């Protein structure tokens, strides 16, 4: 039987998850800002999609960050990440050229990539046997921030205009100061760091990562449609930016509950079971959402967010299950693969929307989600398992 968190463990998990919340408020600004950037620089959907690619490009260094985190204590880099991301994302409206937008996103991407490699490793080190639950807390922090982030972004634009919305960065700077006070003395090493070896780590997790990468590809267009292009889809349908931002906030809020539920349930009923339930249901709900009348938009977004976002903590837990002694390196590999798939899917979705229209692109992305179902059966089971797998 699994032990519950001690008070100290729970406090550490919540502090790290709180840092995730603060950081991802700002990394979620791109989606609500995207319609304004498209209008300001007269961009096509494909070029707009490239912005996410530039934001994700630093994920190339994720394996390196992972190797370093297995060798040295990098908590101070995680501490400054919310402030750096906040400054870069808050300046997006102030710059006059598309090239400067790209530079800001690239710098923010370095910060985000570093933080998202280090964060799950820190969670794993303080969660003990409650790994799925710990990943659930971590993801809840991120998803709840993406509920608050779009609303904060739209509020800042309404108050200060897009070009003048940069003062909103102060919250992220304050968050890093808070993290420094409460995280600087947390021991995350458990007395030992392991030497990260990229080749050995890949060999140990290859049988997980190969089918898992296929699963991520199958749902990647659907994720891009929901996380990046939902406000743009709503604005293109004649709705206001406030309505689009609210839709994204509702999706992310329900996703927060789905993420915690998915991570926790995967400890109890198995990673495979959660994936087999969530992925096909998300595809069906996406198709229903596209054809739904206006009064059903929010109920469907609530259901869609719950099931679609339940997948991510299960993916993280699967990787950590099979990389017990090289968790930083393994998570770096996972995050690098995940971010590149996500960035490529965003560009692909934008190009598809330019060719067949954004509504039809939503339908295609939902259909592709079903292709990942057979790959779930190829995922290995947990070796040191308590209960079902």
What does this molecule look like?
With 389 residues, the protein is mainly alpha-helical. The protein has one domain (7-376): Growth Hormone, Chain: A (Up-down Bundle). Helix content is 77%, strand content 0%. The protein has 17 helices and no strands. The relative contact order is 0.17.
Q: How is the secondary structure organized here?
A:
Layout: H1 7-27, H2 30-41, H3 45-56, H4 62-71, H5 75-90, H6 98-127, H7 131-160, H8 170-183, H9 198-227, H10 230-236, H11 241-269, H12 271-291, H13 297-308, H14 311-321, H15 327-356, H16 358-369, H17 373-376
Helix pairs in contact: 1-5, 1-6, 1-7, 1-8, 2-10, 3-6, 3-15, 4-6, 4-15, 5-6, 5-8, 6-7, 6-15, 7-11, 7-14, 9-15, 9-16, 10-11, 11-12, 11-13, 11-14, 12-13, 12-14, 12-16, 15-16
The total beta strand count reads 0
Distance between the termini: 15 Å
Strand content bin: under 5%
Pattern of helices and strands: HHHHHHHHHHHHHHHHH
- CATH class bucket: Mainly Alpha
Helix content: over 70%
Q: What's the overall average pLDDT, rounded?
A: 83
Structural features:
389 residues; mainly alpha; Growth Hormone, Chain: A; 17 helices
Summarize the model shown.
The protein is mainly α and 389 residues long. Helices cover 77% and strands 0% of the residues.
């Amino acid at each position: 039987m699994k032990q519950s968190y001690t008070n100290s463990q729970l406090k550490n998990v919540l502090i790290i998850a709180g840092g995730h919340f603060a950081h991802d408020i700002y990394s979620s600004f791109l989606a609500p800002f995207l319609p304004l950037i498209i209008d300001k620089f007269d961009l096509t959907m494909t070029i707009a999609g490239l912005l996410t690619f530039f934001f994700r490009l630093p994920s190339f260094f994720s394996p390196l960050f992972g190797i370093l985190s297995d060798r040295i204590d990098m908590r101070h880099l995680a501490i400054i990440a919310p402030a750096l991301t906040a400054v870069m994302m808050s300046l997006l409206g102030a710059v006059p050229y598309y090239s400067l937008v790209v530079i800001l996103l690239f710098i923010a991407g370095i910060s985000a990539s570093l933080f998202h490699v280090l964060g799950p490793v820190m969670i794993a080190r303080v969660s003990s046997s409650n790994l799925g639950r710990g990943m659930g807390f971590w993801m809840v922090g991120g998803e709840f921030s993406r509920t608050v982030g779009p609303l904060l972004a739209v509020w800042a634009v309404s108050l200060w205009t897009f070009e003048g919305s940069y003062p909103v960065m102060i919250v992220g700077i304050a968050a890093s100061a808070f993290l420094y006070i409460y995280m600087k003395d947390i021991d995350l090493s458990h007395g030992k760091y392991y030497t990260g070896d990229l080749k050995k780590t890949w060999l140990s997790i290859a049988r997980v990562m190969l089918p898992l990468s296929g699963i991520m590809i199958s749902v990647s267009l659907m994720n891009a449609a929901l996380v990046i292009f939902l406000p743009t889809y709503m604005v293109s349908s004649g709705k206001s930016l406030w309505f689009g931002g609210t839709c994204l906030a509702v999706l992310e809020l329900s996703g927060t509950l789905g993420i915690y539920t998915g991570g926790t349930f995967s400890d109890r009923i198995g990673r495979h079971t959660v994936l087999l339930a969530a992925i096909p249901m998300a595809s069906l709900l996406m198709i229903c959402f596209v054809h739904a009348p206006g009064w059903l938009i929010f109920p469907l977004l609530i259901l869609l967010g719950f099931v679609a976002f339940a997948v991510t903590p299960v993916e993280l837990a699967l990787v950590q299950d099979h990389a017990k002694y090289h968790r930083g390196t393994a998570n770096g590999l996972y995050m690098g693969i995940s971010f590149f798939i996500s960035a490529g899917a965003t560009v692909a979705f934008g190009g598809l929307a330019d060719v067949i229209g954004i509504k039809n692109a939503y339908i295609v992305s939902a259909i592709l989600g079903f292709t990942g179902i057979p790959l779930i059966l190829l995922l290995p089971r947990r070796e040191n398992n308590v209960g079902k797998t």
